[in-house]
Every structure is written in C-alpha cells, then in structure tokens.
Amino acid sequence: MQDTEAAETLLCHVARESGAQPHAVNPSVVHASTILFPTLAAFEARKSARLRYGRRGTATSFALEDAVSALEGAAGTVLAPSGASAIAAALLAFAEPGRHVLVPDNVYGPCRHGCEDLLRRFGVEVTYYDPVIGGGIAALLRPETRLIWLESPGSQTFEVQDIPAILAQTRPRGIVSVIDNTWSGGLFLKPLAMGVDISLQAATKYISGHSDLMLGTLACAATVHDRVRAHAQRLGLCVGPDDAYLALRGLRTLAVRMRQHHETGLTLAAWLAARPEVARVMHPGLPDDPGHGLWRAQFTGASGLFGFVLNPVEKPRLAAMMDGLRLFGMGSSWGGYESLLIPTNPAALRSATRWAPEGQTMRLHAGLERAEDLIADLEQGFVRLGGE
C-alpha cells in the first residue's frame, strides 16, 4: 500500500476556497434556486456563467465537484442524487438506437436493472461478459459497440478486472469506458490515469463515510465531461447543498478512514480464511485470491468490503449466527464507519457466468471498530452457527 500522505493533504485543502465565508475553514452551505444578475448584459450572457440557476449548481456543489475532480484526476465531475442515478445518467448519455453496450456479469444490481429496463427500451443491445475476460473482450466487440462498463472488484464476488488489457482493445475503437470505482473510494484506484473515460462512485458509501446521505459522482475525462453534464441536467439531476456539504466533510477524512478499512478488512479476511466454517474468502488483498496479482498491479490499497462463502448450513443456524451479532449490522449499502454482514445471492444477477459456490455467500463490510472486537463478535456467531 503506497503512502497516502499526498492524498491526505490534498483532501484537507482542496476546494475550501469555493463558497467560503471570510476566515471560515469550510465552504458555506448555499441554498438557492434563483440566481440574480446585476445587468441585462450579464443576464443575457448567463449560459456562459457557472453559477446561473440552483439546479445547475451552487458554490457548495461546485466545491464538491472540484474536490472529487482533484481526487480522481478528472477534467470535471458531475453530481447526482444517488449512485443509482449516476449510473442511469452515464448509461443514458450514450444510449442510441442500434448501439451495443458491454457490461460485466458481476455488475452492481441497479446497473443491470438499468441496462434491462432503460437501455433496451432505447433500442440498445446489452451483452454481459465474464469480468475476468481481460484482452479476450476483443471477441465481443462490434462496429456498433458504443460503451463498455467495468466494475473492479465486483461488489458481491470481488473479481478484479484487467483494466489495461480491456482498454487496449476498446480505446483504439473509440469505445467509451465507465468504471464503478466505489470500492476504492477514488483513493486506491486511479482509473482516469489509466485511460478510463468516467470513474463513477456511489458517494453514499466511502466519500460520505457516515451512512447518512445519498449521492453519486461521475468524474469525467475532458472528452466526455460536457456530454455527461448535459444529459444529467436534462434529466434534472441535482444535489441539495446540505448533502453536498456532508459529502465534503466526509471527503476530508477519506484517506484516514480508508487506511483503517484496509487494515481491518485484511485482518478479518485472513481470520475468516482459517475458520473451518468458511469454504472460501473473496478478498483480492489475500495472496491466494485469483485477482491478487492484478490488484497489486492496479490498486494501492483495499477497502473494507469483501465476501466469503460458508460451508453448507441450514437456515435456522445461519439465523442464529446473524441474529445474535452485536457489532455487525444487517442492512443495504456499505462504506460507513459501522461494520455490516449480510447474506447475498450473486447467482440471481448472473447470465453470462455461473455462480454456484455450494454454500451461502456472505458480504462483509469492515467498519472502523477495533478488529479484535469484530473478530470476537464473529467468533461467538460461529459458536451459534454450530448449534452450541
């Protein structure tokens, strides 16, 4: 894991001047719909002004856009009110009848639903591909292929994609690439520097860090930024100033929190790998994980989200384990300071590959609690799992 001192410094200082009151550390929260112009000439020239109408952004949202752009190395960032709406904006920005889109088979559920419900209605054909296909993606490319989606690692089964190998096939053909970069928080993976066009995050998760807001970000290369922003605005997507402020506040501590998620997640993953109740652990930071080599080559750290498969167990025993946990909550989302553990069913969201682990798949988010306390909670859970 590389030293994050530069990132920590950047996140403490970037975009603080935008909208800040004199001598205030943080940008101010600006609530506004109507923006007044001092002269007729200024009003008539408003389309060239960054600040022109509340739906198009205020000083608070601009500060967040600038901060995310600095974090991800983007030409510009587009905000959306949730990760799912950011996904929809990215898909619809390039949806044209007769076009073809490639999507990894391990993709986040709302993205798959968006492809099935939205893209197909627009006459776009979608092909789902094996996420570990690498350079073999060339066999699936067509003259009409317009967009390729990536998610690395996948948020339920955690395959790591060979991003450079995929881009080597798609970029020469002018195919736009989008990656869901939520797992890295925009800190541990820099896809735009690798040649990806759009780095998308559900900022609800690590950027927020406190499980109290919904937000999506689309960090864009210069070649696609104007198109994505225009489509997001036509969809009426905007972010309230209070949510933007909370995201900015969360962003300041992102590097510190991610380091803790990294360390605790690896500790828990290694401990689970040695448990007799566990058939396999899916964490690319473990040396025996199939994606470990790619993870080491492309990432500078790991988040707290990973998966594991339990040996076959009856539902009542699983319930006994889960219902008695003190520190692990059961709930959707992840990326907050609290630890989570839920059962998942990746097979229900597959069509190009098969997921049949012969046991219950679980997803764990390692929060900011002390690792030893989390292990003790899991250990007692395994006692209940065994019926003791």
**Number of helical elements:** 13
User: β content, as a range?
Assistant: 15-25%
Number of domains: 2
Unreliable residue stretches: none
State the CATH class of the largest domain.
Answer: Alpha Beta
Q: Specify the CATH homologous superfamily of the largest domain.
A: Type I PLP-dependent aspartate aminotransferase-like (Major domain)
Output mean pLDDT: 94
Return the structural class.
alpha/beta
> What distance lies between the first and last C-alpha atoms, to the nearest angstrom?
40 Å
What sort of overall outline do the alpha carbons produce when their principal axes are compared?
A: globular
What attributes characterize this protein structure?
Aspartate Aminotransferase, domain 2, 2 domains, seven-stranded mixed beta sheet, five-stranded mixed beta sheet, 12 strands, 36% helix, globular, lyase
Could you explain how this protein is built, in words?
The protein is α/β, with parallel strands linked by helices and 388 residues long. The chain folds into two domains: 5-252, Type I PLP-dependent aspartate aminotransferase-like (Major domain) (Aspartate Aminotransferase, domain 2); 255-385, Aspartate Aminotransferase, domain 1. It contains 13 helices and twelve strands. Strands 1-7-6-5-4-2-3 form a seven-stranded mixed sheet, sandwiched between helices. Strands 8-9-12-11-10 form a five-stranded mixed sheet, covered by helices on one side. The longest helix has 20 residues, at 254-273. The protein is globular. The two termini are 40 Å apart. The relative contact order is 0.13.
